[in-house]
Design a protein that fits this description.
GO cellular component, one term: bacterial-type flagellum basal body
Helix content: 10-25%
Subcellular location: Bacterial flagellum basal body
Radius of gyration: 28 Å
Domain Flagellar basal body rod protein N-terminal: 5-35
Number of strands: 20
Number of domains: 2
Number of helices: 2
Distance between the termini: 25 Å
Mean pLDDT: 89
Order of helices and strands: HEEEEEEEEEEEEEEEEEEEEH
Largest sheet: 5 strands, antiparallel
Protein name: Flagellar hook-basal body protein
Family: Belongs to the flagella basal body rod proteins family.
Shape: elongated
Length: 267
């Protein structure tokens, strides 16, 4: 009985964690460059159940041998293994703001590869983002809305001196007669990146390989790839599954209560 109790409880915990991921996706539905998290569920190892018994050998002196008759497998519950971001390209929205930049995926040598803007976090470490909602700070540097420096290909902050600039489709920032290559990084496997908040990712990335195609669109933002309608449906499904496990848990609890208060009563 307790096995079923724990199985139902694990289902409730898993649905709660999935609901948290879906709620976070909904809250970031309007965040530029946000990639929706998908909760991956995994079952605990199955247990093969046996019926314990014995068999008598037809000898002069009968002997009893223990035997095991297989009954079948028993599932022991489920858990959320990890959150996997969905890196599908989001739709583009025109803003007309010259500091807004959008990356448009093209053809990459790896199916799981993708490109990112390179920025510098508060500790001076490089991080990667798809959120091109940039601005120019009071010192003339191109920064994110959180104040992180946008880096060039050499890994240095981009100084605009408050001047207007043009960004070409290949990522060249043309400013006052000079050209600055944006720090666009490529990773062959986006699943190896870890989210850090504020739209930043941490992991291994390098220069865009030869043969890869992409483009940068100035005056546009890549929108979140969250499908609000689908996410709301998934939230309802998770809630109903949570409720079903809750009813099972309540039934087990009532059965245990009867076992303690009625079956175990000394008459």
């Amino acid at each position: 009985m307790l096995r079923g109790f724990y199985t139902a409880a694990s289902g409730m915990i898993s649905m709660q964690r999935q609901q948290e991921a879906l709620a976070n996706n909904i809250s970031n539905a309007n965040t530029p460059g946000y990639k929706a998290d998908q909760a991956t569920l995994r079952a605990f190892p199955e247990m093969l159940m046996y019926q314990m018994g014995q068999e008598t050998l037809p000898t002069k002196q009968p002997k009893n041998l223990p035997v095991q008759n297989p009954i079948g497998s028993l599932n022991t519950g489920v858990y959320v293994q990890e959150y996997v971001p969905d890196f599908v390209q989001g739709a583009l929205r025109e803003t007309g703001v010259s500091t807004d930049l959008a990356l448009i995926d093209g053809v990459f040598p790896d199916e799981t590869g993708s490109i990112f803007f390179t920025v510098q976090n508060e500790n001076g470490d490089p991080r990667y983002t798809r959120n091109g909602n940039f601005t120019v700070d009071g010192q003339g540097f191109l920064v994110t809305t959180e104040g992180y420096y946008v880096l060039n290909q050499a890994g240095n902050p981009i100084q605009t001196n408050g001047m207007e600039f043009i960004v070409t489709p290949d990522g060249q920032l043309q400013l006052g007669g000079q050209q600055i290559q944006l720090g666009i990084a490529y990773t062959p496997d986006v699943n190896q990146l870890a989210k850090e908040g504020n739209g930043l990712y941490n992991g291994e990335a390098g220069p865009v390989p030869a043969g890869a195609t992409f483009s940068v669109q100035q005056g546009f933002l890549e929108q979140s790839n969250v499908d609000s309608a689908q996410t709301m449906t998934q939230m309802m499904e998770a809630y109903r599954t949570f409720e079903m496990n809750q009813r099972v848990l309540k039934a087990y609890d009532e059965s245990l209560g009867k076992a303690v208060s009625e079956i175990g009563r000394i008459g």
